[in-house]
Amino acid sequence: MTHRPTEERLRPVRPHPVDAAWSGRPPEPGDVDPAVLAALLHRHGWQRRGGAAGRYGRWTPPGPGGSAMSLLVPESRAFPDSDDLLGDALLALSRSPMPSAREILLSLAVPSDEIRWWRDVPAGPGGAATWAVEEQLRIAARRMLLAGALATHARAGYHGARHRRTAAASLEHVLVGPAEDGRLSAFVPVATDRPLAVRLHQALYAAREAIDYQRATGGMHAFDGAVEAGVSHELTEAIVALVRGTEGARIAVEWDPAAGVPEGCAGSAEPVEFSPGDLPVLRQAGARYRRGEPSVPVRITGAVVRLRRSGPRGEGTVRLRVLAGAEVPHVKITLDEEAYRVAGHAHLVGLPVRVHGQLESRGGFRRLTGAHGVAPVQVDDAERDRLMKSLQENSEMAAFFEEACAAECGD
Known about the structure:
Elements: H1 17-21, H2 34-43, E1 47-48, E2 56-60, E3 71-74, H3 82-95, H4 99-109, E4 112-119, H5 131-153, H6 164-170, E5 175-176, E6 183-189, H7 190-217, H8 221-226, H9 233-243, E7 249-254, E8 272-274, H10 279-292, E9 296-308, E10 316-324, E11 330-335, H11 337-348, E12 353-360, E13 367-376, H12 381-392, H13 397-410
Parallel strand pairs: 11-13
Antiparallel strand pairs: 1-2, 2-3, 4-6, 4-7, 5-6, 7-8, 9-10, 9-12, 10-11, 12-13
Helix pairs in contact: 2-4, 5-6, 5-7, 5-9, 9-10
């Protein structure tokens, strides 16, 4: 065990995504649409309690102590004091300790569709939730967002490793607030990621309908059609992770008031609910998706990053970093002696190889079977240098050279 010296400075903590996107300063009144602010207040449970009709409304926050604070929000910019009222309201929100005030300001700063998760978990001592409960909520929410992002790239019952790198990169724009009292909110920017929110919204409703159909009829056929809406093995697993260990869970998607409701989506829908009684059906559907997804014929171009075989001759296993031909980062291939030799030589001279085969669903589309036609791909000197530099920076490079040299010396 190693210990950090007491005089060593701690590494800076990575800022929370919400903190990184919003500095805490309220937006300028001229940048805020009064109607959007009013819609966000209503969404977060604030209540309008009178005000001058046609000019402004008086809004109070939810909860028993809500009457201690109120905001005057103009209904439009038709009156000279509109900017002053907006400025006072935004400043009051920025100084408020309530989570809803912070989320409203974030939605104004980064126009976003909001996704909310709730888990009904028995409270711990003093009504507090355990660390593990909050972590489970956050992990399940991320898995669900990833499943939605995968569905924007392809409709498949089982994605495995396909498109995962691209889907994970798309989540970099999503802002996530703190998990509190079994509730978590994510803000999906309209400008970059609205298709993610739309696909997840549609997939959740399709999953709910397919579960209801199975529990009513015993048939799993509704899950086949649900794939087109974005339901997949990954989504069913995410729902299972969200619901497991709870008395129930809910997910809601709220559209950005400024952008409006996307085509084909409900404007004000109730949260989609799942219960522990749904878990057997979801697990059955997930396993069915995984079994049913077919292998894919591909022609892959990739750089060899590992060679391995048990002796100096015979077949061996090659690992490729995929450059083109499949939406996966790496694949493993078992090659006969001649193809194995071609792959080793191609790497040693800095060339990628091209290979035909079947990308197997078993193992997550990480293995190529029936490989044939292995051949080096000619590239120009600049591309070869770039490829060699990239491979030399790979953590597996030392192991590769050791194995490759042993094989060559044995031959």
